[in-house]
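Quick one: Intron maturase from Forsythia ovata, structure tokens please.
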Amino acid sequence: MSLRTKLKYLTLTQRATIRFLSHLSHRHNYYPPPLPPPPPQLQDPYSQLKEDPFQILSNLWVKTFTQSHKPFNNLTGFLSKFDLWVLAYQRTCANVTGSFPHKNSIYINTLSDLLSLKNAVVHNHFQWNSKTQQFIRSPNDKPINFLSKRKLNSVLASKTPPFQDLVVQEVLLMILEPVFEPQFSSKSHAFRPGRNPHTVIRTIRSNFAGYLWFIRGDISEILDKVDVNVVVGCVEKAVKDKKILNLIKSGLKGPPRNCTYREDSGEKVCKRKKKKGQTRKRLLNENEPKPDPYWLRSFFDFAPEEAAKIPNYGYCGILSPLLANVCLNELDHIMEDQIIKFFKPCESDSIWKYSIKDSCHNPSWPEFVPASGKEKTRKMDYIRFGGHFLIGIRGPREDAVGIRKDIIEFCDSKFGIRLDNSKVEIEHITRGIQFLDHIICRRVIHPTLRYTSNGGNIVSEKGVGTLLSVTASLQQCISQFRRLAFVKGDRDPEPLPCTPMLYSGQAHTNAQMNKFLESMADWYRYADNRKKIVGFCAYVIRSSLAKLYAARYRLKSRAKVYKIASRDLSRPLRESSNNSAPEYSDLLRMGLVDTIEGVQFSHMSLIPSCDYTPFPRNWVPDHERVLREYIRLQDPKFFCQLNKLVKQQGLCLPQDEISKIVWDYKTLGVFSNRFNGDKESENASHQLMLAP
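--- reply ---
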């Protein structure tokens, strides 16, 4: 349609408006406002993939450990690297779907959505928990356009965080964890790479001998809820980047998530009453990950009280444990300063006579501390796992009371948590202190000391000492089994049949329970009574399976099950009414059934003993040790000092030896050997020619 035809069909009002604007433009130099700029062209996501994400993170770890005491003013550069976002997407997919997608298998549309999410975060357009405006979705999610109204309402009302929130949390964790790790205290062992409850138990065995009074504190309230200003104030000491701080602050302002202990939060969980005929198996979707096996869920339910609660602040998700450690890091450093101030050596004592690092540590046994002498050295030590800490004090009880008072005042002023004496208990070593389902106590022993006197005579004397004992709590193990419906009763527990494995075969059931027993044996690896506690676990599991098989195969009692299947339940069982079934050996030969594994640890001789491997007092994880050695090797001053020491001691560097060998080989060895070899070969040939 031409311009004249368009003007023909315009209304009178539109024509008058056009004449008026043209008249104004000619008389008063008035022009209409300019058109908005065209939208920017879409960026190619493949052009943003320039670096290796693991190399980026490695450089960040090296940089943070090199400048551990300096705050970081600019972390937006790492937040803008698209390679980190792709790695975060891969890790999030592994957690959600159960499979780690390869970088080359990600579709172009997904990369474009991920790039849009990165730009939204960098330009402050991202909102937490936005379920209607999502830049990227999980591979398992369906588009909202194809959802019904009922499903859409359920998605909006659900408490499950969007997939894009998980990706942002993963990126922030990858950036912030290297920043705070070198600043954390070595006394903290929870929610950190390279540290776990085993390192806590080994540290207690190595460093906590000789203490009489123990303070066992519970400040796990900070894992439930914490003030936003407190967290941001603690983060600002190391991170000055406003974009990172605004992301954390907006994420903390979300509603509190459900804690591990739902009964303590006071929430009423309404459950619909299901009818008996309503129980049916649910089919998994195509990309939905399989649930954890029964043995793994049972082992996770055995988690001790100190490790059962995981913080979850607002919309921060997996970033919450790191933020909890950031808040409690100030308490750790205060206790480290208190350890140095509290130390008062005594030369008449048998240990810690002169310095805080001096002690008599026998690595082949648990810590042996002589108890002779009236005056003792005043010393204390501290360790924390999550929201629980343990303090050992060598001194009077009044010192422990004063330290408890200081901790209560600090928690009240810093975090707003009011602790009473029941949360921070003072116990003597003779009563036994329970920590991480292990009991810390001491045994008084009277060893015979034999030595040679000045006259050459062998003298035997009886000494007095204490042996630090770290044993697993049998009562706590029984209560955990009772909670999981493996046993009933307290003093004399009776095993119950393992009903969740009722419809599984004997081979599969034995294999599942063997994995559970292996995990339990590894959990009690550093307990003095490892054989006893693992033997009890094996007895409970074996008896529970025997009762299950007695009910499944109609054998009426455990004795008949043991008679047919042996003590370790490795022989096949079958119903007595089904006599026409083929033999197990024939089915096994044809590959129609699996091999039946016997239940492990059926005899005490098969249970491994306690692991008394020496644990260094100033232990650091392997990744920290490698990082510090790498940083030290990058320092040129270190090589200058090393070269000076070599010259002072008259040693020769390996490089000098190699260069000398090469020079001698080039100048002397090649020609002389070659000449000598040619002359010898000529003489040998001449002799052969003269021979008859």
